Amino acid sequence: MTDRYHVTTCIDDRTIAFQHPLADPFVRHSVYLGWRDLLRGLLRRGLTVTVVIGGDRATVASVMALLEPEPAHAPAATHTDTDDETDLLGNAW
User: Fold this and answer.
1) Is the confidence at residue 26, as pLDDT, over 80?
2) N or C: lower Cβ tally within 10 Å for the chain?
3) Are strands 14-22 and 49-56 parallel, antiparallel or unpaired?
4) Range of the domain at 32
5) Residue 92, domain member (yes or no)
């Protein structure tokens, strides 16, 4: 099975994992915080953990088709280039 998805994890503005390959995005993804991050969050009174799951264009198009069905008058997507990678919002990496 090829890794069609990737995950990027950030704590505040610091990237922890960038486009880590992931076989299936519908599994549990755990983010472990070290004592330095916990202390920093305590002193700043907040800690933001961001997890972005992305994939190749074909994968993103498939997921987006499930979330928002296309209107009847819209042309069907014909783009099949799978070398370009985007996140689930369509932002290119």
Assistant:
1) no
2) N
3) unpaired
4) 5-70+79-87
5) no
